[in-house]
Amino acid sequence: MTSPVFHAESSARLWGGTPEDYQPIHDWFDATKEVMPDFRHRALRHHSHGIFEAERVFGPYIVNSDGHRVPVRYIGEQHVKEDCGGIVPTVSDWLSKLPVEGWMARAVPTVLRAARKRWSFGILRNYRRRLRHRRRRPKLLKQNRVRP
Predict the structure, then answer these.
(1) I need a labelling partner for 102 at 20 to 30 A (CA). Which of 2, 46, 65, 96 fits?
(2) pLDDT in tens, 33-60
(3) Rounded CA gap, 46 and 33, in Å?
C-alpha cells in the first residue's frame, strides 16, 4: 500500500474501531520512507524483528475506540503482509539479498589501534602483513602493459 492511512483503514475493517486507533503504529512502520522513499525502506522494519520492535514501542496491545484489545503484533503482521505479498520475511531474508560491497568489510586502522588491547598481537600482525603485501605488488606499465 502506498500510505499508512490505507493500512489504518484496513485495520479498522479487520478489528473494529476507527482508523485513527491504528494510525500511530502504521506511521511507525512507514517512517523509514523519510530516508529511502521507495520500496527499499521496508528492509528496515518490514520483517519479523520489526514486528517485535513495534510491540516494544507500543506495548503488547492497544484498546481501540470500540473498547476491544487488539494485539500490536497482529497489527504489525497485517501491515507487513499487505506490503510484502502475504508473507512476513525475516531480517535474514532482506539482508541475504543485499549485495556485499568492499567498503562493508574493511576495518578502519584507528579502530584497530583502539582495539589493540583486546586483540591478540598475532591478528594485528597479520593485518599489517597483508597491508604491506598489497603495497609491494608490482604495477603494470600503462604504455605496454608489461611488468617492469
Answers:
(1) 46
(2) 999 989 999 999 999 999 999 999 999 9
(3) 12
For residues 52-67, one letter each, b for 16 or more C-beta atoms within 10 angstroms of the residue's C-beta and e for the rest, the string is eebbeebeeebebeee
User: What are 133's three cell numbers?
Assistant: 603485501
Supply the DSSP symbol for 18: -
Q: Which three cell numbers stand for residue 42?
A: 521496508
Residues 6+ positions from 80 with CB-CB distance below 8 Å: 29, 46, 47, 50, 51, 88, 89
Cα 123 to Cα 2, 68, 115, 135, distances in angstroms: 49, 58, 11, 19
Q: How is residue 113 written as a grid cell?
A: 589501534
For 1-38, the pLDDT digits (tens) are 778 999 999 999 999 999 999 999 999 999 999 999 89
| pTM (two decimals) | 0.69
